[in-house]
């Protein structure tokens, strides 16, 4: 578990911490450190590895832990530099955020999300047709599913089945931004003030982030009119890519799921949302997909409004708190053999689904993901429909030998 260790007298040396990083998968380094605090010159960052501590701080003390990092800190700098100041995800905990949040809730709360089900099913059925027509481009098809749903719901805009320019621009900006938001990316903004960073020319040695920022800013001009939820919806696509990977690597799980669908739904129609309760194994596959390779391994950072004390430690005003969702989903005490894809872990010994819906995947407290109901329904509908209609198998090369699966991408949008 992690305890915020804020009251120690001597901050840990920044470089020491940063050099020890697994920069491709920093959440794993944080998890290994177990108790973490990074002091990049100005602002402490607390990485919480424990689900219990995250609940104690971000849920139970939500009124104090619901801000986002303040002006002159990494995230606002990133938002401004990268042209993403418009998104409510970065808003400070105040009236502007409250208004946005209320509007989001009206559109996406649990009962409102039910009204999108017909669109979700229709788009999932289009996905099946796309997958059959272009099996070699299955990831592009998955990417389009989420985009197609949110664009239809919001604008009645029907993007091209593949390579839609707007969708591609959003995917690219999200990818750049998520990388920039990691704490180790924070160091550059902590060492140099924002006005200095802003004026570093893109050709300057080591200024790769600046080139990325420029690219992101340019792309963002194309997408800035598109609501933020559209980008967030695209997170459902990586989730589906993780599902495809799991089905390739665990064919027994795939067969078991297909048997369940055949016995409940039969073979002469596609499943719909009424079939959800009697398909517990599909439910377990959905949960395991969200858990196995969380697509937002470090969530979105919170910030502390006022000084606080927690279990003997002092947490300063403005400190950044990051929930290490990766560490929580790979907590061996809760999920033994956590690297394995095992839907069975979500069943009680008497064969019933347990109560663990891996809710922490969607964050904590008042900043919890507002799109979780719609995301959950989209991913469920896609998983069950793909399993009902298709077999997921490794591609074969010219000699008819299985092409090995590249698992590198599977750690999600941010890698
Ligand atoms: C599998 C898909 C998704 C995952 C795993 C996910 C995860 C997350 C996480 C971890 C956060 C940060 C929560 C926190 O600060 O504690 C978040 C915030 C947010 N999500 Fe999602 N999300 C997903 C899909 C969606 C969708 C489909 C939408 C919109 C329709 C959406 C809209 C948002 C918004 C607006 C926020 C910011 C909330 C705030 O700052 O008040 N997300 N999401």
Automatic annotation (TrEMBL):
Top-level taxon: Eukaryota
Stored Pfam families: p450
Residues that coordinate or bind heme: 369
Pathway(s) per entry: Secondary metabolite biosynthesis
Listed InterPro entries: Cyt_P450, Cyt_P450_CS, Cyt_P450_E_grp-I, Cyt_P450_sf, Cytochrome_P450_fung
Alphabetically ordered keywords of this record: Heme, Iron, Membrane, Metal-binding, Monooxygenase, Oxidoreductase, Signal, Transmembrane, Transmembrane helix
Cofactor(s) recorded in Swiss-Prot or TrEMBL: heme
SUPFAM superfamilies: Cytochrome P450 (SSF48264)
TM ranges: 73-93
GO molecular function ontology, one term from the record: monooxygenase activity
Alphabetical list of PANTHER family matching this protein: P450, PUTATIVE (EUROFUNG)-RELATED, P450, PUTATIVE (EUROFUNG)-RELATED-RELATED
Family in the record: Belongs to the cytochrome P450 family.
Name of this chain's protein: Cytochrome P450
Natural source organism: Serpula lacrymans var. lacrymans (strain S7.3) (Dry rot fungus)
Lineage: Eukaryota, Fungi, Dikarya, Basidiomycota, Agaricomycotina
